[in-house]
Amino acid sequence: MGEPISLASGLLTLATFALQSSVTLYDTIERFKSHPKRVCDLKEELKALSEVLGSLIKLVNADTDSDLAALELPLLRCGNACKEFERELLKWSLRSSDGRTSLRDWARLRYMGDDIDGFRRLMAGYNLTFNVALADANLRKSSATAESLASYQTLIETAQAELKVHLEVIDSKFETVLRRNIPESDADNAELRAMQDERLNTEKCLQICTQSSEYLSQIQAIPENSHGFPGSDGPSSFSESLTNKSLQACKRNLGLTTAKLENHMEDLMNQLLAKSKREITSDDDWDLARLRDEWDTARQCIDICSKADNRLKENISTIENYATGDAAQLMVSTAGDIVRGRQVGGHLSDASVEQLSRDIAAINLRRTSYGPDSETGSQPASEFKDRYGWGFKLTPETSSSTFDRL
């Protein structure tokens, strides 16, 4: 790749760049003879990252309709992070006379203020994000079992948790850098300190919105068009419908508020970086530009996981069996949504359900011991249906053999 890599390079180019960067970093680490456990853990993370990036490239090549444009920024940042870490690693290797990196050297290696474990967690965040996006794209084009859906839900929750922790770490680094370089008593920096305080307040408001949205999801009432509470046969009550609509309106408003707060936060970050450049000393170990890039990328990764989580919840119908006695449920969907359950059910017209019921009944009838003889090809006697249900005429051979067995 001779040309500079940027967001304008395209999804396939960025994915290939990230893959090549992760593989190169892995090979560079492999050349060193000393591999403490934390280094081995990083190698395993890079190997897993390379595998998911390879799968992502195959998907992009095979399916041009996959909407994965949101991955462009994470892919670019992932590739750049691997290259930057490799440069730091090679700097440390020059200090080893025999080409061997000692445990002490590995422990002292830093990237964006973090040690090797911190960089591994950074790669793990990208790995989880790419896995979520890949699973989301595949799920929209194929069916899935209840077990795989549960595993996918766990993957999303793990990714969201890890990314939120990573975002908190980035915020903490910003706070440390700015407080160290902005004198408290300097009146000229009053505006800069006020902007920093506003950034912290905005971050708290974003956390409140996120927690509120998660809480609303937990108390979400029965979806509309459901059959009310377990055991009821009628549609959702007026109170259920009204509550659902109110909860959904609250979530929409929280989403709009979150979007506005994120835009405000982005503006604050730009202003802080612009105004603080003259204050940051050349000896400062922190790289604010990279922190800013990582902040943007972490936000994008969280958004990818949130949208995948919403699609998972919106496109799956969970139908429980509340029937008693001998009963069969039909579980189907004509809208392309995923239906999750142990019975058969879903959204069909009355005529379609009636026809499907007749078809399944016919299949079950042929499988019973009283069904048609597969060898003789005997068929049910329809003249008995209205009085006693389906019956079968016995041939003389069948009658004889039956009484002989008795």
UniProtKB/TrEMBL annotation:
It comes from Aspergillus campestris (strain IBT 28561). Residues 1-26 form the signal peptide. Keywords: Signal. InterPro entries: PigL_N (IPR031348). Pfam families: PigL_N (PF17111). Residues 3-210 form the Azaphilone pigments biosynthesis cluster protein L N-terminal domain. It comes from the Eukaryota. This is Azaphilone pigments biosynthesis cluster protein L N-terminal domain-containing protein.
